[in-house]
Design a protein that fits this description.
322 residues, Rossmann fold, nine-stranded mixed β-sheet, Hydrolase_4, AB_hydrolase_fold, hydrolase activity
């Protein structure tokens, strides 16, 4: 693991001169060498506040507008590309390969240590989708963390979005198989119009690496199914948080089979009713915000929608004293 007493070596990031990245090294796992990547964008004025953002499944950090919004509101911005994602993928690794969500604790802990060492005493922990599940559990498992002051999750992956009978019977069985045969693959059932709704060369307005966030991902490893299933069981039982949490999600979920404007005005990945249901089971100071016409990644929604996201986020942070 990286030495917490040694400052990370930053270099220019792919997003441009105001973004820097540092490689974090960790002990080998079942595939060999492991790294993660910490990206930062500092605010114009010195601040003791920061945000640490964790991306979702089949994803990486590229949401520059979000970073700029945090900078403008007095936060230094940090994001992790987790092991085996985006900037962190190594030639010998399988993309997104994980056997339990707790594997990511190492890079989250290291990133928090670095952010603290860089002059910050108040951190907003943030995550999108699988990152929202991961950060919720991290905050619950570290109730006395001296730096984490609040949690913001954007469409957290609190439950599988699939036929209820298939979910009740199939997911537990797949999880059991995944423990023994982690590399077996199963149809992902992800809506094929999500990434096309985002990318500027397809139907969207955003530019991102289609190798790191591909247009389609038809098969998923059973190791991932198992990791998510085990993590969600804890959420479903009702975790406790010691910091205020803001859970945001779209006002509607759709599953278009062909291209439709729903792909640009709804969550086509998760069922927002599941997010709301399990957010209400979290014990503590939890605010649930429903975003009209929001996409699965709310900060990639149409301009007026994401302006509403930021308005409500920063109003909430001000109320909570961050």
């Amino acid at each position: 693991m990286s030495n917490g007493n040694t400052a990370p070596l930053y270099q220019r990031d792919i997003l441009g001169p105001s973004y820097e990245q540092a490689t974090l090294n960790f002990p080998d796992d079942y595939e060999g060498q492991v790294t993660a990547t910490l990206v930062r964008k500092k605010a114009d004025q010195t601040t003791s506040k920061a945000v640490l953002y964790i991306h979702g499944f089949i994803d990486y950090f590229f949401q520059t507008e979000m970073a700029e919004q945090f900078n403008q509101h007095g936060f230094d911005f940090y994001a992790l590309d987790l092991r085996k994602y985006g900037r962190s993928i190594l030639p010998h690794q399988k993309y997104y390969n994980v056997r339990e969500i707790a594997e990511y604790d190492a890079e989250i802990t290291e990133a928090l240590n670095i952010i603290g060492a860089e002059g910050h005493d108040a951190i907003l922990l943030s995550g999108h989708s699988t990152g929202g599940l991961t950060t919720t559990l991290y905050a619950a498992h570290h109730p006395e963390h001296p730096l984490i002051k609040a949690l913001w999750v954007n469409s957290p992956f609190y439950d599988f979005n699939m036929n209820p009978i298939k979910k009740k019977l199939g997911i537990p069985n797949l999880s059991r198989v995944g423990k023994v045969c982690p590399d077996l693959k199963f149809p992902s059932e992800l809506n094929k119009w999500y990434v096309p709704s985002l990318h500027k060369n397809l139907h969207g307005e955003w530019d991102f690496n289609l190798d790191w966030k591909p247009q389609s991902y038809p098969l998923v490893r059973l190791s991932f199914v198992r990791a998510i299933f085990e993590a969600q069981k804890e959420i479903h039982q009702g975790v406790s948080l010691t910091v205020p949490a803001l859970v945001m999600h779209s006002d509607q979920s759709k599953n278009p089979k062909k291209w439709h404007q729903y792909a640009q005005s709804s969550d086509v990945i998760l069922d927002v009713k599941h997010i709301d249901k399990y957010a209400r089971k979290i014990k503590g100071d939890v605010t649930i915000a429903k975003i009209k016409n929001g996409l699965h990644d709310l900060v990639l929604s149409e301009k007026s929608v994401r302006q509403n996201v930021y308005l409500r986020l920063f109003e909430w942070l001000e109320i909570k004293g961050l």
